From TrEMBL:
Its EC number is 2.7.13.3. It catalyses: ATP + protein L-histidine = ADP + protein N-phospho-L-histidine. Signal peptide: none annotated. NCBIfam families: sensory_box. Residues 21-163 form the GAF domain. Pfam families: GAF, PAS_4. This is histidine kinase. InterPro entries: GAF (IPR003018), GAF-like_dom_sf (IPR029016), HisK_dim/P_dom (IPR003661), HisK_dim/P_sf (IPR036097), PAS (IPR000014), PAS-like_dom_sf (IPR035965), PAS_4 (IPR013656). It is an enzyme of class 2 (transferase).
Length: 380
């Protein structure tokens, strides 16, 4: 019972706000109901947890009432019409303030407003200050008109829901357009090349950097729907297809290409291949291409410098040690022969030759060091 009442209250909440056109139609129905049933009062009511709300009225000017004080709370507890010919003689209502005092209600009849999912949300009811009975035609009319009231209220809720969904879609589209515009601004402002490929090397999208690159290097305009193979050198295309296929298989790939060899646009490019998914399926590959020519030249220069330093180290460790060792040996000979001197010219000639050789080696080291330093300055 608690679960059922909870769902009924959820159903009631759908109809609490009605647009003006529906309210006008409901007022026309209660007026017609009062005329057909020959009663001064007719109402469309909704009953929530604590209150009874009047959504359309004839013969009274009232907005709400407590659920405890309503006649209709008994109606929603059954599926058939509730007819009370004389409320003063019905133990459920005889002590009611509206029966004993106030308008002194005597007659009441109510038909349930039953939702499509089977919940009694409220009633179409009629009241009179004198006892009476309803004819079969009047009873049938009351039930038919109650269904029409419910249809109108369901229609109102459906229209509101559709409008909310429509507004939500518009808001989502607006947000998506704004997000797309923002992403496009970032996409097009990047110096890197971005190209989105389909499953057959077909170009789906690209940024300004990519368009400018191909226009500058090959004088050809990149077009969505064309094939990337039309813009690549055969040797580059062969290598690219291998990595592109790996990305279509779900792998993230990074590689480097040397392109436009022997042209003014020769360059090293670093390329990332990223699988693009729609749900669980890979629908294409995104290429992110960066020009790394300056970095490659810098790396090449560092390699040359390292090789030069290695040669200097070899010279220092081997070639320079030989004349130095010779000098040291000559000096030892001079020391040994001090007591038995002979032609000093031969020793001095040897020293002169060794010194000249050492001088040549030192000059060579200095020259190579200067060349290495100058190349480093030019690159940087």
């Amino acid at each position: 019972m608690i679960s059922s009442e909870s769902k009924r209250l959820e159903a009631v909440s759908r109809f609490m706000v009605l647009n003006d056109d529906i309210t006008k139609d409901l007022n026309d129905i209660v007026n017609l109901t009062a005329q057909i049933c020959e009663t001064p009062i007719a109402m469309v009511t909704l009953i929530d947890e604590d209150m009874q709300w009047f959504k359309a009225t004839q013969g009274v000017d009232i907005y709400c009432n407590t659920r405890e004080a309503s006649f209709c709370r008994f109606t929603i507890e059954q599926d058939e019409l509730l007819i009370v010919p004389d409320a003063s003689k019905d133990e459920r209502f005889s002590k009611h303030p509206f029966v004993e005092d106030g308008p002194k209600i005597r007659f009441y009849a109510g038909a349930n407003l039953t939702t499509r999912d089977g919940h009694n949300a409220g009633t179409l009811c009629i009241l009179d200050v004198k006892p009476k009975e309803l004819t079969e035609t009047q009873q049938t009319t009351l039930k038919v008109l109650a269904k029409q009231v419910m249809n109108l209220m369901e229609l109102n809720w459906s229209l509101q829901t559709l409008d909310e969904k429509h507004q939500e879609v518009l808001k989502q589209k607006e947000d998506a357009d704004a997000s797309q515009l923002h992403l496009k601004a970032i996409f097009d402002s990047s110096k890197d090349l971005f190209i989105l490929l389909g499953k057959h090397l077909n170009i789906l999208a690209f940024n300004n950097a990519a368009a400018k690159y191909y226009d500058r290097t090959i004088g050809k305009q990149i077009i969505a729907g064309a094939f990337l193979s039309d813009y690549l050198e055969p040797v580059v295309l062969k290598k690219l297809v291998r990595y592109y296929s790996a990305a279509l298989a779900g792998h993230n790939v990074r590689t480097e290409f040397f392109v436009r060899k022997d042209t003014p646009y020769a360059a090293w490019l670093e390329v990332y291949f990223t699988p693009v998914k729609e749900g669980a399926e890979i629908s294409g590959v995104a290429l992110n291409v960066s020009d790394i020519t300056a970095r490659k030249k810098h790396e090449e220069q560092i390699t040359l410098q390292n090789e030069a330093l290695q040669r200097i180290a070899i010279i220092q460790s081997h070639e320079l040690r030989r004349p130095v060792a010779s000098l040291m040996g000559i000096m030892e000979l001079i020391k040994l022969e001090e007591e038995h001197p002979y032609d000093d010219y031969a020793y001095f000639k040897m020293i002169e030759t060794t010194v000249n050789e050492l001088d040549d080696k030192i000059c060579g080291i200095v020259a190579e060091s200067e060349t290495t330093l100058n190349n480093s300055i030019i690159v940087n």
